[in-house]
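Input/output pair, single chain:
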Amino acid sequence: MAALMSDPFGHGAPGGKVSALFSKDTKSMEALHGNMIGIQWMGGPLSSAAQYMDEATVAVLCGSHVRFTCAGFSHSEVFSPPARGVSTLATNGEDLFAVSEVCLRPAIIVFEYPELSQYSRLEDGAELEYLCVAFSPSSERLAAFSGVPDHTIFLWDVSSQVMIAKLPMGFAHSPQLSFCDLDTPHLALTSEAGVTIIQMEHFGAEWRLTPRTAHLDRVRSHCWSVDGDLFCSRRETVHQVNIDTMEASELTVNEWIAGTIVSIVLNDSGIFAAMDDGRILLLEPDGDNWTVRVVAELELSVLTMRPSPSYNFLAITCKTGEVRLLYTPSHDFKPLEGYEGAGSPAVDVCLVAPQFDYVASIHEPHGLHVWRAPRGHHESSVELVGRLTCVASCIDVPCVLVGNEDSCLVAVDLVLPLNPRIVWTARVCEAAVTSITVSPSGRVAVVLTADGGAYLLSAQPSAGFSVRAQLQTDGTPTAVDTFQRMSENGPEDMLALLVTSAAELLSFVRLVIVRDLEVVGSVTYGLNTVCAGLAMHSAASVVYTMAVQDRSLCCFTLREPDQLMEEQVSDLIWKPDASAPSEHELRRVLVRTVGRFVLTAADDGMVRGRPDDLNNKEKGPLGDRHSRQTHQASSGGVRSFEVQPSGKEAALVGFDGTLMRISLPYNQSGSGRRRRSTYFENPVVPEARYVAAMRPLTQIDLMTMPPTWRELTAEQAWRRRESELVAIRERIREGVQTLRTKVKHMLDANAEMEEMDRLPENEFELDLDEQTRLTEASQARVEEARSSIIDQNARNMYVRDQIKKQCWDAMDVKGKSVQADCCVGPDEEA
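Output:
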């Protein structure tokens, strides 16, 4: 076994072969295809299960690329198929492999190996996608099962590129498709819905597909035996299906081991079953029964398992993206070390200080990883808190700044890449951090947040990491670039922000001038359209951006900021000096400048290079050799793009989570890296010493939610205002006390004078305005009292009159008189 571990895939191993792709006589991928933009290495989540291309090469889909790895070693090559995206991969284990496209009416493209040239193109099949593809044992035919809306099995003749048959099947969850290994006319399709055996019959030029179904559901995986029987795994059991009678029988074992089987492979040793918890079981025949034992424990959740052409090796793909290899003829079945798989989806990437050959990337949900740049070897990782959103490297310092959705900024020390340390953290505001851009001087950085804020950050360890100020943008910043200039007052950092107006009708460039970590001025250049992406030319005040309306690449020449501020004409609308088609199909674009070239990466997944002189129509684009499809447009294209100052390399992250480092042909002279051994001896850049001296923080420090910079700034402003008010109040109190003492002294002196010479006390009233106010207030109160008394008297008189009228006048006695009449009696004479 020791000899096997030292050379597991060479001629010393049983059945071992030399990889045809990694032999000394084989040229690199870029030399074969003549592309000036080459992929050095890539990582990220796997788009397909690992499969053996030959006995010593493992192939896997990573994004829209096929990554070939020399099994057992770290050597890998990346092949970019000329396809409209890639969704599935299939190999015949010898000299052919096929990929299916991701587009409307996709095609299946077959390539030769190791030449990597197109062999055939199979079309007129699915409407939207293919779920699985399989070669026949003789590689003469290829079968594919499509997804919605077809759910159909298509069969092609590979050499003639003619579809010879198709069979509608219906919906199938987690399908697996394979030909019988004996090259008999049978094809198996298994899924959670059941098992279907398709018999292929050939009548002259016509092919007929006849399906037969076995009563067996919830099938996770299947494999063929040498006798032509089909073995299927169902959760915790394995069944054998007789293709003649379509009867399924469960294997009789001595004792089942609890767990869920996700994949099975049969070879001369028996049936290897991969459990979802990482255990690998071996079912060995013992007469009519089977014995089960655990032969390996990977301690990783397994996704699937595929054999090599000789069935001596197994490539086990884990859910974490790692790929483990197992040598099956061994008695102890120890997994072979040396092959690194992919990790969790990447979010952002940066190139650590130019003199270091390291790449730092952040991955979902909260992991920071460090890679050795030349070959993509994983050095170390550190777990942070919160969902990470962006990362940027400090200039000339092995330190990176990381932002997350909780508006936290974290500085990680990479002086020792194998032992990263968290040395600083702070919160900016309540919104997520979307981007961090460090100036070429390394003194300042610009932080953009999701709420449209822009903040100035001190990024120099000797000055201390801190948030310095909030930049006024008058809109929503979408892109940032920086450059440095020398003025009469010393070196200045120029921060260029591409801002979209609130109504999203126009874009403008806000140029902020920073000196000694303080904002000393700003100028606004209004553009004549809405733009995306921003890059400043390193040698001139030229801005490159893309007009969203017609997707053209434009350049604007900016006037001197000092002249603009003196003339106060910064509100003018600037038109582009030159424009050219960007050749990108969609609207989001990242723009970078390297020497005399402009690089663009967009949401169509393309990276393109062109000369910076857009007026020169003769030069134009540099052609297909200076363009590369790095990520799939269907997944969102390029998410992050950083170019090394030397112009030799760049690092990219796509929305599909793939991370890659590419080589560029735009080398700038005099910008090479310094060796790391002389880094600490250079007195010009002692910043690493300050980083190394910082106290490391723990996870508990990161989990605490400190106040944001805006909250602290508001609190500090309130405290400053409060202290100012307290000082004013004390001064007023002292003045009043002094004045009171003087007035008392004058009153005492007045009281001692003769009565004729003595002044009234009201003459000593100092506040004449207050005296007048009090007098007027007194008069107003007197008038109010007088009016109230008059009103009350009027009411009383009215009541008196009513009482007199109703009571007194009614009791008056009317005048009366008494009158007498003279009467004569009967006896008297008149």
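The radius of gyration is 44 Å. The longest helix spans residues 709-751.
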